[in-house]
Amino acid sequence: MKFSLKQIAIFDAIADTGSVSAAAARVAISQSAASMSLQQLEQQVGTLLFDRQGKRLVLNSWGLWLRPRAKALLQDVHQIEMGLNAKHSLSGKLQLSASQTVAESLIPKLISNLDSNFPQIQVKLQVKNSQQIIQDVRSFNIDLGVIEGRCDDSKINQELWCDDELIIVAAASHPYARQDEVSFSQLEASKWVLREPGSGTRDVFDAAIFSKLEHLDVSKEYDHIPTLIALIASGEYISCLPARSCADGIKQGVLQKLNIKGLSLKRHFSFIWHKDMNDHALRDCLIKEAKRLIR
């Protein structure tokens, strides 16, 4: 074998961070040692693996080819270490990204359950919209993502977690809140505040509504659901938001779900991961616990 596992680990850390110094800190070696390790690996494989763009190192085509294979190899090494040490519980770090609705409503309970049942698993959570999560999975920046709706990328595996629903919502003081049913023409005449393009919520809403309306007056777009709820509660706007996010406001009498006949806003939450990262014990454990959570 021309290269060492240590060289592969340093390559992976540089690919993650885009920096030799940051990678050196991650694997607890000196910057000069990390730089030498990368140089040796590139010499041994006979090609450069990164393009130098200013102070950043960016994977070139060969580096992109090696990245998933390096990750899979390092995961296998981790599993071997666990087996040889006769560990009976899973341990390690898992990079997880989830959309805002999932992160607010389901992830806290999931992490709490993991802490109780698998205390040696450390979940590092990022909150992003669905398109950003898909890109992070494609780039191997995270181990696992949770998105709203579908992902049609051929490089990504997708597994259903649970169903969800979006609702059209207004302030309890809004004129539409007193109606048994709201028409599409009334929706067209309304002022809207919506999630930003690229979010799963917005994708589902756009797909459902634009075949029904000729025009939609979107006054504001934000990626922060509490901001949208506060704007709706002011009485001027209506929106399409997850039912889970609006539940407290509806219960408190601040918000009102509007009934629109012929409008379906059902969706689902799904786990996604890169197809080149199929064997991952921590990921499989988290998915199993997540599905147990919603039974």
From TrEMBL:
Residues 3-60 form the HTH lysR-type domain. It comes from the Bacteria. The keyword Transcription regulation applies. InterPro entries: LysR_HTH_N, LysR_subst-bd, WH-like_DNA-bd_sf, WH_DNA-bd_sf. Keywords: DNA-binding, Transcription, Transcription regulation. Coiled coil: none annotated. Belongs to the LysR transcriptional regulatory family. This is LysR family transcriptional regulator. It comes from Motilimonas cestriensis.
